[in-house]
Amino acid sequence: MDPHGIFSDLLTVEVNTIVKPNMTAAKMPSLPFALLDIIENFATALLKLGVDLEPYFTPTREQCWAKIRADPQHLEDARASYAAANGGGQPREESDLYDYLGDLWPALDPSLNSWPTTEGWSFSMAGVTNGWDSFERLRIAALAADPKLSAGHEVLITRIVGACSRLKYIVQGVQQFYAPAHAPRLSLGERLGQLLRGRDRRFASWPELLNKTRNDLLRRDQRQQRVPVHHLSPEDQSTVRKIWEVGTESVLAQTCVQLDGDVITRISEDLIEAHTAAVQELVLGCHHRSVDTGLSHWRALVQVAIELVDKVFGRISAR
């Protein structure tokens, strides 16, 4: 047991008070659906700002690859990434390098490409997957639109670009590591267990869950399987959860408390300038109570972690 791993997620407590229109109070779904929710949320926000998503979501994976494979530098970088992840090997098919690309700019940069437009085209989640390239498409769309938008939208665009960058990194890493060509190595005991009981169909494999549309995930055989979330690091799980929770909503107040005692509270200008004193008092009072609740749970978790580590080291020293 690694004490660093136990304490790494307990160094900071963060409390956000946000404005949530049409609140449903739904809990975050399993990872594959949560990723699709985030994509839909960001796409809707960009569409409301007047961003045309057609040039970024119309090109298929194959069309993007055809553009990028003509770029020597991107192709070489993808080969190097593949070799690093697969023990120096090379893919059976060159197109397998697609999931190892650093970005899709050569295929989606509006200044370099002119994809045909469709009259009456409208964005639909029906054909959008939860794969890494969906986040890359949104990231490039937001970056390309940024200079054309008013200064008041900079914060939202920055949030979308940053969130898509992090999620692209997380999802691409999972797609690479759990790809059929790079399945994780199992111990002798694990391999023997699989042979004796057959593949555990209670859990879906990551290739069955990522790069899938919502309809793909709702197939009967998929609904009967569980999501192997335990294969994600706690840090990655926390990142996905926070992005899903906050999304594109307005954060009115935020408090971060560090384990060393530093406390930082940020208050949005919107709360100060656009709301009455009564609303300010209501929001800040709610925020203060949330901070108290968060700190109470935080202290309890830290105490449990300390006791757990003490017991582990006590047993080791007693041997």
Question: How does this model look, in words?
Answer:
With 319 residues, the chain is mainly alpha-helical. It folds into two domains: 1-21 and 251-319, Ybab, Chain: A (2-Layer Sandwich); 24-58 and 116-248, no CATH class. It contains 15 helices and three strands. The protein has helices spanning 3-7, 31-48, 54-57, 61-68, 72-85, 105-108, 132-145, 154-177, 188-197, 206-209, 214-217, 220-223, 234-246, 269-273, 277-318, and strands at 12-19, 250-258, 263-267. It has a three-stranded antiparallel beta sheet. A hairpin with a 4-residue loop joins strand 2 and strand 3 (263-267). Helix 2 (31-48) runs parallel beside helix 7.
Taking the sheet with the most strands, its summary is: 3 strands, antiparallel
Low-confidence stretches: none
- Number of alpha- plus pi-helical segments: 15
Tell me the span between the first and last alpha carbons. Answer: 16 Å
Counted beta strands: 3
Order of helices and strands: HEHHHHHHHHHHHHEEHH
